[in-house]
Predict the 3D structure of the following.
Amino acid sequence: MQLRIGVVGAGQMGMNHLERLSGYDDVVLQALAEVDTIRREHAGNRFGFVRTFHLPFTLRVLGVYGVGTSETILITETGCDVLTQ
């Protein structure tokens, strides 16, 4: 059985999560939401995400610590088993 993972953010902490998660054979990196185009493309290509999302910065304002519900909804709709922010 494979575990499908969704990640919000490809900054320092997000990349740390991705480095660790990518080492498991039973993990599929399902979806990534990142506001920065360069970071999103880099992480998407490096780790082979099934799907990536660009989210305008304004969507992040209402969330806690800059992470809003919009990212969570988009990623969980891709069928992820686990979401990390």
